[in-house]
Amino acid sequence: MDDHGQMSAEFILLVGIGIVSTLLFAHASFEAVELNTVMSAARNGVTEGIALDSLAVYPSEKFKKYSESYPRLKTCSKTVYIDTKWLNMGYDSTYQKTKILIKIRASTQDQMTKIERDCLGDRINYYVRKNICETFKTDNMTNIYYNPAFSDHYIITTSNVEWV
User: Fold this and answer.
1) Dihedral angle over CA of 50, 143, 94, 90, nearest 10
2) Structural domain tally of the chain?
3) What is the pLDDT of residues 84-95, one digit of tens each?
4) Which terminus of the chain is less hemmed in, N or C, by CB atoms within 10 Å?
5) Cβ atoms of 131 and 156 closer than 8 Å
6) Burial class (CB in 10 A: 0-12, 13-18, 19+), 21
7) Does residue 135 register a pLDDT over 90?
8) Is 47 helix (H, G, I), strand (E, B) or coil?
9) In the chain, what's the furthest Cα-to-Cα distance?
10) CA distances from 9 to 2, 3, 20, 23, 89 (A)
């Protein structure tokens, strides 16, 4: 059978199938790695946001607003991070990327109004988006609130922090 090139054709077919399979697997793996990097950056942002909220460290314009409207936020608070989840919102034709919604759950034992908790949550979400943009070096593609945040293949938004 070697005289007719049969073994060469089978070998080429097997190598071709192997290469195609490898490329498909590599593409799926790279997308999973990118999504894991997004979520890791998001968790780091949650940690940073909670730490700065807990110490009542805010940018000057927020500090002024909180001093006038929400003086409770100027004191230290104890916020506990529970978890972070993501939801695939489908393809966004405006940005030509897949849209991901990040949901964060946290709790606080401090007696705060819903508006005060929302202010804390806004700061946490800000640091989540900021950290994602810094990780992927996409700061120049978004606004000053890093909303939305971008990675190579995803557009990332955050929902209001769920307080439990």
Assistant:
1) 0
2) 1
3) 999 999 999 999
4) N
5) no
6) exposed
7) yes
8) helix
9) 90
10) 11, 12, 17, 21, 45
Query: With 70 as the cut, is the pLDDT of residue 45 above it?
Result: yes
Pick the closest to residue 155 from 145, 144, 141, 164 (CA basis): 141
> Which positions ≥6 away from 159 have C-beta within 8 Å?
101, 102, 103, 104
Q: Which domain holds residue 147?
A: 2-163
- Three-class secondary structure of residue 79 per DSSP: strand
Q: With a cut of 90, say whether residue 50 has pLDDT above it.
A: yes
pLDDT, average across residues 138-159 = 96
Say how many residues make up the chain: 164
Share of the chain above pLDDT 90, in %: 66
- 88 burial class (0-12, 13-18, 19+ CB within 10 angstroms)? exposed
CB distance 120 to 108 below 8 Å: yes
CA distance 131 to 45: 5
96-120 CB burial, b ≥16 within 10 A, e <16: ebbbbebebebebebebeeebbebb
Beta strands 162-163 and 154-158 are unpaired
Residue pair 39/84 in contact by the 8 Å Cβ criterion: yes
Over residues 17-21, mean pLDDT: 91
Question: Rounded to two decimals, what is the model's pTM?
Answer: 0.83
